[in-house]
Amino acid sequence: MEQWVSDGRDIVRNRGLSLIPAEAEDLGFTIDMSGGLRGLLMKKPATTSLPATITGEDALPKEDGDGVEVAKKKEYPVQYAECEIRYTYTDTEGNIVDVHCEIPMMKNPNPNPEAGGRDAEVVCHEELSKLLSTTTLDVIAGAGQVTQGMDEAILQTARGETTEWWLDPAFAFRENGFRSKLGSILADAPVHLTLTMVDFTNPMSSYERLVKGEEVKNVANGLFKEYMAVAAESGSHDPNLESFKEGLRAYHRGLTMIRKRYSFIPKPNPDPSDPEEPSPEEQLLKDTALRAVLLNNLATMHYTVGNYTLADSFVTRALQVSPKYDKALFRRALLLIHHQHNFQQASLLLNKMLEDGIGDAAVLSGKLLEIKSLKAAYEVKSKNNAKGMFKGVGENSM
To answer: Cα–Cα distance between 366 and 369 in angstroms, integer?
Structure first.
């Protein structure tokens, strides 16, 4: 895999022999996943009694048209799937040397005086036994977060399944070996791996991300409407209300879902029965529209509570994505009016929208008329403020 400086296969090939115990095949490790090099041997998978990760009708055996029970199709993770796993590494003597959870320690009831305090703590095996069956480790498949052998084993282990492996050191800890609170693996020593795939989430295609992003946007819209209803009833806008904060978080989740920029990702292992996804060009148009809406809705939320600087920042980003998005242009005009008091620039922007046929002409015309009265009121207020500032200056001067 590209995450490793050198492929274990090359190391075994150059070495000329495998360091996996000779009796491995006699014990059932007959599936060679290293291309005949005996570098990565797999035993026939055996399903474990895991807590159910599939519920409802999907958990029930299926029957075909003749009433014959049909086994549920196995599901495997793909590259970069988010996996929840359990594992144990065992040395050639059968001693567990590493596991998927933190190693709980306890005070040694019988320390050796000659150890100089080095054995003050020992492994709490009772607590460890509980953790082994109740905890999982989160791993990204094929991302180089674990040994090469485990990375490849993960991709060959179905949901709810346990697999066993022998790893040549080239696929495990190589010349570095490994040491933990449980024990150690010597340099260039093979290791036995037991791996359980508790659950996983395969990476989504770019279109699946768009669909999820749209769903999150709708949730955020509902939260914002809920906040606006409370604000209307109370007569004030409070950014500390939970519906407001949750709405902001939801819009940000939507942006996270579709990532920083669009890139086409085909659906991994598509089922022939799945509906055809839109073309990359169609997806790009959908991404642009959704991204602009999410950014502008964030601007609207911040504008509502008077966070004009943040509102202006999100409007700017929305217009960078979609320069002719009518709601973002209109939000920019409102910021020019109420935040910057730049009535002339706001009028130019609204007139330009009318000329280009962007937005609701009646709304734009109404706002242009409103600008005239707002400008007049602002000028009167500014003159009064100026008079107040200089009132009495002449009287107090020498």
So the answer is: 5
